[in-house]
Amino acid sequence: MQANGQRLSAVARRRFLRDGFSTASAGSTPEATSPALPTGIGLNGEAFPQQSSRGETNSPSENGVEIANQFSTLVEASAVAFSPSREVEELTRGTVRIRLSRGQKCVLLGTCTLWVKQGSVSVYGAVLSASTAIYRIYAPTTHALPAIEATTTNAEVEIEPLSDGTTELPYTRTRDIWTRVGVKQASDLFYVLGHSFEYDLKRPGRLRELDIAPWKALLTNASTYDSSLPPRILICGRRSSGLSTFARCVVNRLLARQSANSDPASRAGIRVVDLDTSTPEFVPPGMISLVQVNKSVFGPPFTHLLPPSGSDAGYVLRTHFLGEIGATDLSPWHLDRMYDLFELDRNCRSKQHQAPLLVLLPRWLNEVDEVDAIKLWSKMAPTQVFCLDPNPASSHLMRWQSLSEGGKCNINQVPVQAFEKIPAVQQHDLQMQSYFHLNASPMSQPFWDQEPILAGMRRHATLSYGGNNARICAIFVMGGHVAFEDTYEALLGSFVALVAVPSSLSTDHGLGADRTRDNLSIEQVQRTDEDLPRWQGRPGPEDSFPFPAEGSFCLGLALVQDIDVASREIRLITGPELHAPDVQSQGYRVAVFIPKATADGRFRTDWVEREMQMRKGGNHTD
Question: How far is it, in rounded angstroms, from Cα 435 to Cα 556?
């Protein structure tokens, strides 16, 4: 810890801290106030109060606030290094100006916008220079907190609260992810916590800084290329290794490089092929996707899901729904959908050759057979591979090591870092909830509404399933052993994926118009007592996805709210911009896929029910 460029001893730090709060308690001018900081304990064990943005102080015992605080060293760093030297100032209520010197950092918690006014700073892998651009920062406690680090002699940034509904999602488990239990909630939506801090292995509950120093050389390597030959980067590795965080850092570094280029033609954005269905980066779970990313992402996946149509941040080019699959489930139908995304990327390259491509590989592709691995490698055509697994014999490289030797492709093994502290089920539910609450605004900026999805004026769609001209041509139950007569019970109240298939692939009886091409027969779709068209194909993984990838695509996810047997209609609560009722006029019909149930409860509707319980009772119970 330093004051006026000098490092202070432990005794001097305590005296300096005590004198600083003595001065504050005697009264402070608006000019010297700093943003609200959590209540905490100094290194000497003495408690110091929370200082509000108005210079007021709150006793640690007020409002049930605990004295013990995970941010004790952070608070001390902020109070000593920031306040006396006025490196952090409140300009207006909620707006904070921060001045940093080269190498100096500050750590954020909460939601805010960032404006770089002077110099340049590094945050989440991106180097941002002074401009008029505004960046959205999402820093929940479930993930490592981003640090703003000055990369020039002097840097100045302004931070404002970001109120886009993210912090108000009506899901009980989001209650404390934007603050800390036992710390009084700040009046603003973010905290300036202080300089960087060391992770304490003996205190695993303490939050971590997003320290990407071990990756700096690799990120520089990934973003250094000839603009006439953009890179095609493949990222793989084990779970809980920092893979998603590294991928976001690569995206941010590539986009920052483009924004710094004076040639507008080189600002083509980034295309991402994400083959991880468990925790995809830009779409809801269960999908593989090709997306166009135009703006940096500073937060976990549930804060930057992309809409299916154009926006400033980016958009989804195509998705296919695979559900939750493993290595043993892998079949030609899954691979065909992956190949389809790469084929679409190839078509995009002919129009936007400058755009780099990022490919995110899931663990279940490690056991793909040699023939399919060769074909997939030729489709990906990577120029660099980054594997988050330091083991030279890593299973994540087994299929790609020999293939890379035959071409101009470098393999880099990336140091593993564990940043996330969120269970897979909670991450899954947060992404699902974010998807169903996401809205698009006229300013092409996303925002999230607070209304439970089972209440109020939600997005609805009604699809017919009976008769020759019904919009729904087939219902598929993925995995499990749901009896034919139990189709109604399996469908009602479930999350489903709606897949558009060409009308030429269906008949008045459901399917089977093109038997030669698809090896389908009319008998493969049978009607239940409720007249629901249940797919009854031959058992085995080859029948999990009977439609060819070419010409079919996922429209989005929905929740089945009601099945009106009398009128042969299914009423759905849909995700953002899902236009299922319009597909028939465009030559498509809809196939409904009920996702495979997972052992840990993913794709269940528990969080939907908790939303309603919270609305009725107002209680936050997990």
Answer: 10
pLDDT tens-digit map of 461-491: 999 999 878 999 999 998 778 899 999 999 9
Residue 79's alpha-carbon distances to 17, 25, 38, in angstroms, are 7, 13, 11
Rounded Cα–Cα distance for residues 416 and 548 (Å): 38
Residue with tokens 């493993």: 326
Q: How far is CA 495 from CA 222, 285, 384, 429, 476, in A?
A: 38, 11, 37, 12, 12
Residue 3 has pLDDT above 70, yes or no: no
Cα 5 from chain centre: 39
Cα angle: 43, vertex 45, 51; to 5 degrees: 80
The model's confidence at residue 361, banded by pLDDT at 50, 70 and 90, is: very high
186, 188, 190, 191: CA torsion to nearest 10? -50
Residues belonging to the chain: 622
Three-state SS annotation for 242-266: CHHHHHHHHHHHHHHHHHHCCCHHH
Q: Could you tell me which CATH number the domain at 2-194 has?
A: 2.60.120.1030
Dihedral over Cα of 575, 577, 581, 585: its sign: negative
Please give the Cα distance from 524 to 543 (Å, whole number): 10
- In 64-174 the beta strands, taken as DSSP E runs, fall at 88-92, 95-101, 105-118, 120-123, 126-129, 135-139, 147-150, 154-161
pLDDT at residue 39 greater than cutoff 70: no
Type of residue at 35: P
Q: Long-range contacts for 439-447 (Cβ within 8 Å, ≥24 apart)?
A: 439/576, 440/307, 440/309, 440/311, 440/576, 440/577, 444/310, 444/311, 444/312, 444/313, 445/164, 445/311, 445/312, 445/313, 446/164, 446/305, 446/307, 446/311, 446/313, 447/164, 447/165
Has residue 141 got a pLDDT over 90?
A: no
* Residue 46: CA count within 13 A, CB half-sphere: 9
Cβ 172 vs Cβ 620: under 8 Å: yes
Q: Please indicate, yes or no, whether the overall pTM of this predicted structure exceeds 0.90.
A: no
Q: Give which of 210, 250, 248 is closest to 419, Cα–Cα.
A: 210
Q: 187 or 103, which is more confident? A: 103
Query: Treating both helix axes as pointing N-terminal to C-terminal, what angle do 370-380 and 332-349 enclose, rounded to 10 degrees?
Result: 20
> pLDDT tens digits for 369-426?
899 999 999 999 999 999 998 888 888 888 888 888 776 788 998 888 877 778 888 8
Highest mean pLDDT among 21-25, 34-38, 358-362: 358-362
According to CATH, the topology of domain 213-426 is: Rossmann fold (3.40.50)
Confidence of residue 30 (pLDDT cuts 50, 70, 90): very low
Cα(339)–Cα(273) distance, rounded to whole angstroms? 11
Domain ranges of the chain: 2-194, 213-426, 450-609
Amino acid letter, residue 3: A
Strands (E), 339-459: 357-360, 384-388, 410-413, 438-440, 446-448
